[in-house]
Amino acid sequence: MIAHDKAFRRFLIIWSGQLLSAIGSGLTAFALGVFVFQQTQSTTSYSFIILCSFLPSFLLLPFSGVLADRFDRKKMMIIGDIGSIAGILFILLVTLSGRMELWHIYLGVGISSLSAAILNPAFKAAVSDLVSEEMYSQASGLIQLASSAQYLISPLVAGFLLSAFDIQLVLLIDMMTFLLAVGAVLMIMKHDATPQKQERQSFFREMSEAFRYLLSKKGVFSLVLLMSVVCFYIGLLQSLFGPMMLTLTDSKTLGIALSASASGMLVSSLLIGLFGMGKSKVIMLSFSLVLAGLFYALMGVFTSVWLIMVFGFLFFITLPFVNTSLEVLIRTNVENERQGRVWSMITAISQIGFVLAFGSAGFLADHVFNPLFDPDRLLGQTVGHIIGTGAGRGIGFLFIVSGILVAILGMMIGRARKIHELEQQALEVIRT
């Protein structure tokens, strides 16, 4: 027991460093987005930062888990943290030089994203090295808390910092948090041995087998495609919420709105943890998506910052119910020995929705929807009387359309025979 307590304390040290670095990363992500939008008034430029922060990690996703199993995980974490520092330092230096261009920011963000792709799977895998099986649940909950901090805490703090200081201070704080994370890893490295390297198998063969397995499970594959569609609409919201709000208010209020909205996920996650969910995960999934679509659409209808914040909070409340329902339905219909490979493939396919959203959101906003809501255009003279005209109202209309489509998707799922069959199969497995 004493040894287990010491091991968990070492985990808490390394987790504290990752918590701080997650908050620092959230500060920089918020600050760079606001900075670029205020400089360019371009939604495309804003959303391209999000794409650069996501795409490198996405492309490395199939490989990073393999690396975490084959190499020293703590050294990988240090390399990842140092790489993130390098990316932020590059952006800081070009901003101080006064010769900054957008591609400088995109490059720096991309370097940090590559580094995160090395760090994150190594950190999650290192839990098995640091804590006993009895403490896995506590460790997993703390990891989820650390990853959520950049959405719950960072926007609020960054909004206040940007209202009083330059972006350089935010970048410096982010670099300091990564240095603290490196220090935390160095503190515990001498206490824990490197895990033994496992037998190497053909990576591409395993991935192709996982993909063929998914195709053979038509109900599961349908859910994976659903996850990709949901990720697309969430990606649109993630890309365009900031630009829409910045046409209505300042960066400090935007930070408050983002943190308050994201706290909805924390509330519903606690409710699920305390009370669980109903027996029918399909009905819960369908109902949650319909509500998510409704609140998504209502965020686009109004120009009141407080109403947008309320509906944003309600939208994020629904997401843990959607995610949990999807995960349970899939997990109970995939054999245990295939879980690792299959979940890696599921994550890769579902996150294609994010890539498509981050890549298209700026174009849709700047060149399709916002121009339609000029006061002298047709939609500006019709729908514009209801939701308003001018900057950002095209994004609001895109939110309305997206929300309606999400709600329709939720209703279709409730009537899908193949998805209901998944729940029946899961119940039969439990009975046997």
UniProtKB/TrEMBL annotation:
Keyword Transmembrane: yes
PROSITE patterns listed in its UniProt record: MFS (PS50850)
Highest rank taxon of the organism: Bacteria
Membrane-crossing residue ranges in chain numbering: 12-37, 43-66, 78-97, 103-122, 169-189, 220-241, 253-275, 282-299, 305-330, 342-365, 385-409
Membrane topology designation: Multi-pass membrane protein
Location in the cell: Cell membrane
CDD domains, A to Z: MFS_MefA_like (cd06173)
Pfam families: MFS_1
Alphabetic keyword roster: Cell membrane, Membrane, Transmembrane, Transmembrane helix, Transport
Main location: membrane
Stretches assigned to coiled coil: none
Domain Major facilitator superfamily (MFS) profile: 10-418
Record protein name field: MFS transporter
Organism: Brevibacillus porteri
Phylogenetic classification of the source organism: Bacteria, Bacillati, Bacillota, Bacilli, Bacillales
